[in-house]
Amino acid sequence: MKDIIIKFFFILLPVVGISQSNPSWGGYFSYNNVIGISQSNTHVFACSENAFFSKHLSTDEVTTFNSVDGLKSEKITAFYHSKQHNLTFLGNENGLLIIVNQNNKKVINKVDIINDIPVPNNIKRINHFTEYEGNIYIATDYGITVLKLNNLEFGDTYFISESGTETRVLQTTILDNEIYAATQNYGIRTASLSNPFLINYNAWETHIGGTWLGVTSINGHLLGYNWNTLYRILPNGTTISILNTSQNIVELKASGEYITVATSNVVYVFNEQLAMISQVGQIFEQPLTYNCAEVINSSIYVGTSKNGLFSFNMNSPNVYQNYIPAGPLRNKVYSVRATTDNLWCVFGESNFQYNPYAPEVGRYGISKLTPEGWKHIPYEEVLNAASLSDIAIFPNNENIAYIASNFNGLLKLENDIPVHLYNQTNTGSNGLEGFNGGTSSAEPRVHNLAFDRNNNLWMTNAGAGKGLKVLKTDNSWASYQIVSSVTHYGDILVDKNGTKWIATNSKGVIGFNENYQNRKIEINSSYDNGIPYNHVYTLAIDKNNRLWMGTTWGIRVLSSVDKFMTEDQPSVNPIIIMDDGLAQELLYRQPVSKIKVDGADRKWLGTLGAGAFLVSSNGQETIHHFTKDNSPLPSNNILDIDINPKTGEVFFATDKGMVSYKGTATAPSGNLSGVYVYPNPVRPEFAGTVKIAGLTDAANVKITDIEGNLVHEAKSEGGTIEWDTTAFGKYRVASGVYMIFITAKDAEETKVKKVMIIR
Angle at the Cα of 323 (from 11 to 82), degrees rounded to 5? Predict the structure, then answer.
């Protein structure tokens, strides 16, 4: 049975078209955790924490909608689709209301609850939507706010506690023109919608006291639940138990002629007479966790926490289909590694204090995007390695990969199969150590990895032991003491001299080279011209052998890694830029979480709170500054960045999803034999730029029309240039064939290509 299920999950997934709303960006979101289901006349909609997808009820075609399409969610907590208006409503944890018009895919962000409701920010969460006679009643953590559907403007807000203060409303329903609200502290409160003074809390009364977590209605019946029991609530406030379950109820919903009650492992379906007519239990070898459910036509649609959306036949629940749009296992990607053909993702969950317990031990497995699609290695198959935090691909052999575990040591994969987990019990006296040192039973925390030129794998090992380890090509181990106290580590790099540069959370940057009598230096805040703060997240070495350091208080640069040999406390410098005529430090006191160097020696800078920057090779010019507000970035908290060396695509892993920017700075080629042009032909609907890739560094590129008139000229910085299909930026060139003449820097090699443009 297990083999059948795995085949079903990973082979029978629907094909999803790539969004064309923003051709410069790509979205790589997870839809595995379905938290809400709704329906239109033609589609079923399923929502995850940061995006949603729809499935056509007749064709099974699946379409996704995420930040690349303009959906800028925080954390989605409520989901509803209005059939009459063809609008999809997404409520967020912070009170943001997002409305998507399914007719034109226009996204409307309503910030009225965030800006105008006079309650603390931590009680603005949106919990539920109820549509009735042209209004949407929005249940929130403070009360109820009304949205008018005719103009999508907010109306009154009701504070419905017994004293008129804010109270948490979890769900509402309408029955016989009465609105009922399930509250956590004041029972089920009710009022007549005919009353023009609902804004007055005295218009509300308690229908039944106690704690109620949900309420709905069907066919004249009022239903509510608290914890694990579903009740029918009579007009006089007495109750009749309808269902008592072994687990707490997580959702109660009325839809058409049916009621669905979801617990974490069973979904129950009732008809209008409140008779149970179907249920979906655990028919899988590996149990699923259910979040929500809804009956649509003759199918029970169920959202799960890890396996997407299922549809079960109501009369035969053993007959089912599974729908998961392609994507990684989770939206919070902790570390990403891009190679020429593949993209690796792990989901460590550690914070930037490198504590694997905060917020929880991450047991999530590995995702890998291959030319054939996404492949997932679940936690159960990674030898129980948790809090996976970094990926290192064996040089020139992607069939061998190593994954750092900030909880269990070092995981080795061969041909995508986990084959060995190195820890303190199987690596000898010079190998890995538990957090308390030696062979302690406490977890061996390996956070970052780096290969040297001899293919030895270096890693940091946090805790009280020797913090620097190396797994040599002969499978022997060596350990080195680099700090004298318990320390956690960030990035590790190996430079051209074999020096290991290590970021720490309390000791600054450590340089170490075992080939020079274990020489060690520290770049920290204890001396003038050192770093501003000793918590260093990230390191990068650029093409001029400068060491870039990202700290909690900005950036510092060591002018040459060669200074390791001559200076014990080398000077490091900030990047000074001119801003409105004033000298300013680039990213002054801004936490810089990741630095990556692209093929043109430009620097991509990821921050915690300010998005991502692309700066020139020396840092003096800001080329791009991407934030959640001006780009498809789903969050301004950048956890990792990596770049595909062939295509220049830049991947941004954030705490709310992963996107990519289709950059142009690829690594330069050694010759012009592999030059290619894409897209080719350029069709009328294409809105991006033409890329000429596979170039040598500083190659001269001239583009002419078929008659020889020059329309564009550029010199490559790295391996790719782009052309916006205009004549020197003045006007769009006409349809036709355009010649591309390429000359290498030394003029000893040339290449000619063609591109067809169709207007």
Answer: 160
